[in-house]
Amino acid sequence: MNENQFETEAIRTQIERSQFLEHSNPLYLTSSYVFEDAEDMRASFADEKKRNVYSRYSNPNTTEFIEKVCKMEGAESGYAFASGMSAVFSTFAALLDSGDHIVSLQNIFGSTQVLFNSVLPKWNISTDYFNIHELEKVESLINANTKVIYAESPTNPAVDILDIEFLGDIARKHDILLIIDNCFATPYLQQPIKFGADLVIHSATKLMDGQGRVLGGVTVGRSDLVEKITFFARNSGPALSPFNAWVLSKSLETLPVRVDKHCENAMEVAKFLETHKNVAFVKYPFLKSHPQQKLAIKQMRLGGNIVAFEIKGGIEAGRKFLDAIKLCTLSANLGDTRTIVTHPSSTTHAKLSQDDRLKTGITDGLIRVSVGLEHKEDIINDLRQALG
Ligand SMILES: *Cc1c(COP(=O)(O)O)cnc(C)c1O
User: Fold this and answer.
1) pLDDT at 1 over 50
2) 377-383 long-range CB contacts below 8 Å, 24 or more apart?
3) Is the CB of 205 under 6 A from ligand 1?
4) Which residues make Cβ contacts (< 8 Å) with residue 20, sequence separation at least 6?
5) pLDDT band at 334 (very low <50, low <70, confident <90, very high)
6) Band of the pLDDT at 366, cuts 50, 70, 90?
7) CATH second-level architecture of 6-252?
8) Distance 109 CA to ligand 1 centre (A)
9) How confident is the model at residue 4 (pLDDT cuts 50, 70, 90)?
């Protein structure tokens, strides 16, 4: 990041104004761009000129969005995608070859796990997993074909914290890449490149938009790697739409204030839950009771907006809790202005055995709260009445 503070970059990073000298960036809904003459067209196709040619390659709105995320993450360059999953897939498809191997954290986002287990093996790319509480085993999983260590922090839904610097050191030592999905923290709270990540991936669908409107994704980091990802993406077509890029660029202007408030509300919710008689335990990174609070404080500016807690009474109590919720919503999203509650063991993770769930920190009564921006007393009142 250059001399400006994060908030200023979030607002003032802007592509050139058009002839109309607009203050707020306009939306460029165009699939292609015109050439002045034969020589302009020749030079543009020969890649000698850096300019917009076709919106699958680049567009002023996606360029602005990418530049903002790069500044926020302290990254050299990036590419924007239609969704978080297209960012994850394209990154691996661009960088790995048949026979390559991934070492990944076990409790990563569900679709990423399906991608690793059921899609990438079609191209003979395999994955071995490590448990977040056994980082000392990571090195023993690395073999001659390993190209990437992949992880997320905080984790979903158990809100464990991963030591990114520790993994960065291992990646350096073995000359392999560290790729971090930073979606839960956002670049405002945590910048993995500082701790040794080579690439950072985001689902912009979550806190970056923060208002539950659009899908988007982005990969930023080392420019030699982003060049390969861009080559793959330009020719396979997962580009972010200009409209979504325009929405996301606007959203990033308010990311710091929104995330500050999300974290303030989440801390209040976590403290309330700790006092409730029907709650067995609470997991929130900045709570004293979190086993990795110190690490969380080292890596993150604030604790994030996800609070996990264990309701007493197991699966049945979890289902009853969801049915009793009035103000908050049951939804598959997170990082929205609206507070969202989910019960992983009876919904998203119901198909796994109890043993497999426990391996990723999902106990029977675990409730995940994506704390929103409603008044904290209203959120707490709803949780209190639903807890009984
Ligand atoms: C939602 C999510 C994704 C996938 O993003 P989409 O925009 O839904 O494709 C990836 N990683 C994490 C951690 C997520 O929460």
Assistant:
1) no
2) 378/327, 379/265, 379/269, 379/327, 379/328, 379/339, 380/268, 380/269, 380/272, 381/327, 382/325, 382/326, 382/327, 382/328, 382/339, 383/269, 383/272, 383/273, 383/325, 383/328, 383/341
3) yes
4) 26
5) very high
6) very high
7) 3-Layer(aba) Sandwich (3.40)
8) 7
9) confident
- pLDDT at residue 77 greater than cutoff 50: yes
Q: What percent of the chain has pLDDT over 90?
A: 88
Ligand 1 atom closest to residue 334's alpha carbon, by position in its atom list: 15
- Collapse the DSSP code of 74 into the 3-class scheme (helix H, G, I; strand E, B; otherwise coil) and give the result: coil
Looking at residues 11-25, what average pLDDT do you find? 91
Residue 84 Cα to ligand 1 midpoint, Å, equals 5
Report pTM. 0.96
- Domain boundaries, given as residue ranges, for the chain: 6-252, 255-387
The verdict on the CB of residue 360 being under 6 Å from ligand 1 is no
pLDDT of residue 249: 97
Q: Which amino acid is at 72?
A: M
**C-alpha closest to that of 337 among 272, 271, 257, 273:** 257
Contacts of 45 (CB under 8 A, 6+ apart): 53
Please give the distance, rounded to the nearest whole angstrom, from the Cα atom of residue 86 to the centre of ligand 1: 9
Q: Do 161 and 292 form a contact (C-beta atoms < 8 A)?
A: yes
Instruction: Kindly tell me the burial class for residue 48, based on how many C-beta atoms sit within 10 Å of its own C-beta (0-12, 13-18, 19 or more).
Output: exposed
Shortest-distance Cα residue to atom 1 of ligand 1:
203
Q: Which CATH class is domain 255-387?
A: alpha beta
Specify the amino acid at residue 351.
K
- Rounded to an integer, the average pLDDT of 91-100 is 98
Amino acid at 147: K
